[in-house]
Specification:
Helix content is about 80%, strand content about 0%. The protein has helices spanning about 5-25, 30-40, 45-65, 70-95, 95-115. Helix 1 (about 5-25) runs parallel beside helix 4.
Length: about 120
């Protein structure tokens, strides 16, 4: 039967966590709407979005290693998508100096990870 079995509670809290995480991933939308309207990043930093992308990717890696992790995979897939979108919009409207600095740091970090 249904009821309050541990599996049902785990699923209910997992679903609640996914709903909350969905809104957390969407919380920067007003900032990016402002960036879009003003066509400028106005001193906003890209670090929070890069860290959020890394976090979502790390949690997806964990979810692939774990069994019964459909909820983790779905919300973090969405997180990877939306954070990549945020970073793309940020880079599109960022000044050239910021773009060069961002890409230089990204490539240097990539080179360190390969060694």
């Amino acid at each position: 039967m249904g009821g309050l079995s541990p599996q049902n509670l785990a699923f209910a809290f997992g679903l609640l966590g996914n709903i909350i995480s969905f809104f957390v991933f969407l919380s920067p939308l007003p900032t990016f709407y402002q960036i879009y309207k003003k066509k400028s990043t106005e001193g906003f930093q890209s670090v929070p979005y890069v860290v959020a992308l890394f976090s979502a990717m790390l949690l997806m890696y964990y979810a692939f290693l774990k069994s019964n992790s459909t909820l983790l995979i779905t919300i973090n897939s969405f997180g990877c998508f939306i954070e990549t979108f945020y970073i793309a919009v940020y880079l599109f409207y960022a000044p050239k100096k910021v773009k060069v600095l961002f890409l230089t740091k990204s490539l240097s970090n990539h080179r360190v990870l390969q060694d």
